[in-house]
Fold this protein.
Amino acid sequence: MNTPVPIAIADVRAQRTDVAALSLREALAQLAFRLDGRLLIPGEPDFDASRAAWNLAVEQHPAAVVIARSTADVVRTVETARDYGLAVAPQATGHNAAPLAADHGLADAILLRTHELREVEVDAEARIARVEPGAQWGDVVAAVAPYGLTALAGSSHDVGVVGYTLGGGVSWLARSHGLAANHVVAIEVVTADGALRRVDAEHEPELFWALRGGGGDFAVVTALEFRLHDVADVVAGMLLFPAERAEEVLQAWRAWTEDVPDSVMSVGRVLHLPPLPDLPPFLSGRSVVVVEAVIQEAPERADELLAPLRALGAELDTVHPQPTAELLALHMDPPEPSPAFGDGMTLRELTPEAVRAFVGAVGADSGTALMTIELRHLGGRLRPEAARDAAASFDLPEPGATAGFDAAYLVFAGGMAIPGTGDALASSLGRLFAVIEPWRAEVEYLNFAEHRRDPARLFGDRLDRLRAVKRAVDPTGVIRSNHPVR
C-alpha cells in the first residue's frame, strides 16, 4: 500500500505566496496556477457542471470549485481556504448533498471535488484495499472480484466509497459483518492546518475514532484502507408482488425477520414506478411490493429459509446463487444522477401495527407521491455491542464513532423531484414519518439523513467526544461536511 510522501507536500508548501499581499481573487488565481487539477469560479463556462451534485435537485453554490487530481491539490486547497477565511467542503459524488447546500451553506466555501481520484489498490494476501477519495463502489468491486474477495459495498455502483464509509456504511453483508466503517484499518487525511496525516488505531486514535462513523467534518480524506472478506458467492434476489398485497407481504416479511440468522440481510420495499422506457416491463408504470434478500448460505439452506416467503406465491422470484459482484444491481438504484427528494428514519421495532401504519401511508391506495419506500432489517452485528464483540474475530480495531445502531430497522423513502412535485413529495414524506413516529428510534443513520438534523439526533451520547475532536483538529471550522458536529 502507498504511504504519504512528506517531501512532496513540503515542496507544495514552498510554492506558496505571501497571502497578506493578495486579495481573495488573486489568491484563487494563484491556487489555480499551482493545481494539478482545475479551479473554477462562478461565471466560467464549466462552473455549473462542476458544482452539480449527484442529486440534481440540489443547488450547490460555492465560492469556487476545485477539481483535484492529486493529494497535493488537496493540501493547496485547504491552505488557501484557511488563509482566506473560507471553508473546504470535500465531495466525490454528492449523494447526500442537500444538508450541505441548505441555507447557502457553501457560499463561503470551496467545493473540493475528488471524483477524478479513483485509484484502487488490492493486497489480496493481506485482504486489504486502499482507495483514493473519488473511488466508487463499482471501482472497488471490479478490482476485488477477481481475487474472490468482497468489500462491504453500498447498494449501487456509483456510491462514493469514502462518504458512505465515513457515515457508517450498511452493506448487503451488514448483519453478519457490521458496518463498513468498522472494517477500516487506516485513513490518510489532510487536516485543517494543511498537514497530511495517516491515522489508525495507534496513530492519532481519537481522530481515527471520529472519522469512522462520525462523518466528514474532521479532515479531508485522501485515502482509505479497509478489510476485504472471503465471501465470493451468495444466494440473492427479489420476490415481487402486486402492491395491493403490500400489507400481507410486509407483515409476513416482518415476522420472518424476527427469526432469520445473521447470514440473512433483507429489505421490504414498496415501489410506485412511472412508465419509463428504461424500466423492464414488469416494473414500468406499476406499483409493487418487493422483498430483497441476500443469504450467505448454501442454496439448499437458503431455500429452507425462504420457504415462508415463497409460500406467499410471488409474481416474480429472481433469487439465485450469484457472485457478490452482482449485488450492486439488486436494489435497482438509478444508474445516473437524477433529481430526488427523500429522507430516512430508524425504528426501534417493527410491530404489526407499525407495518399497518406504513402501508396505510404508502400502499396501493394511499395516493403517495413517493416512488420508493423501504424497510431495511438491522440487528446482528449491526448492534453496537455485537460489533464491539466481533472486532477481534475480524482482526479489526475497536469500532469508531458509529459502532452500530440501537435500532431494529431503517426506513428510507423518496421520489423523483420533477417540476410541480415538490409539495406532494414533502406532504407524502411527512405523512409517512408522522404515522411511524411512535416506533422511531432515538438516534438516526447519518447516510440516510437527507435533510439537516440536530447533531444529537445523529450522534447521541457520542456528540461531546466528537466535538472535542473537531475542536482539536479544526478549531476554526475550515472543514465543512453535510452533517457537522457543531
DSSP finds 16 helices and 17 strands in the chain.
